[in-house]
Design goal:
Layout: H1 39-42, H2 47-54, E1 62-71, E2 80-83, E3 90-96, E4 99-107, E5 116-118, H3 120-125, E6 134-140
Parallel strand pairs: 1-5, 2-4
Antiparallel strand pairs: 1-6, 2-5, 3-4, 3-6
């Protein structure tokens, strides 16, 4: 896991400010401050959000497949995976090695096999190094 004080840079430079992303979360975390530079500053999820993501009580309804993930925009708050394995927002679960987390699955619009992007908080919960290209298993809940 990256140190909490490590600087984070969005791919291609600082993250642009944009309109909020569509989400299933009725109370999404706020975007990070514009001056955010550390992992902790970019991760605006609450302890309750993290606990809910790690509460694995609901069985998965279908395994969608595996995908390679990289860090998505750290300026996009929440616990999510943008993937070509779904075509609509849905609740899901991601498994990395022996770690599992409930995530929001967001359609990436890419072709199946083109890879996926994961939120900074999701990568931290799954103990995926932020600079790694990791293979994960994706399921629908």
């Amino acid at each position: 896991m990256a140190p909490a004080t490590a600087p984070v840079t969005a791919p291609g430079g600082p993250a642009p400010t944009s309109a909020p992303v569509a989400t299933l979360d009725p109370t999404p975390p706020p975007p990070p401050p514009e001056a955010a530079v550390t992992v902790d500053e970019f991760d605006t999820t609450t302890d309750a959000d993290k606990a809910a993501a790690l509460e694995i009580t609901t069985p998965v309804s279908a395994t969608l497949g595996t995908t390679l993930v990289t860090l998505g925009s750290p300026a996009d708050p929440g616990i999510w995976l943008k993937t070509p394995l779904v075509t609509a927002l849905t609740h899901g679960r991601v498994t990395y090695r022996s770690n599992e987390a409930n995530v929001e699955l967001r359609p990436s619009g890419g072709a199946v096999g083109s890879g996926s992007e994961m939120s900074l908080p999701a990568m931290r919960l799954l103990d995926i190094p932020l600079t790694e290209i990791a293979e994960v298993t994706v399921s629908r809940r």
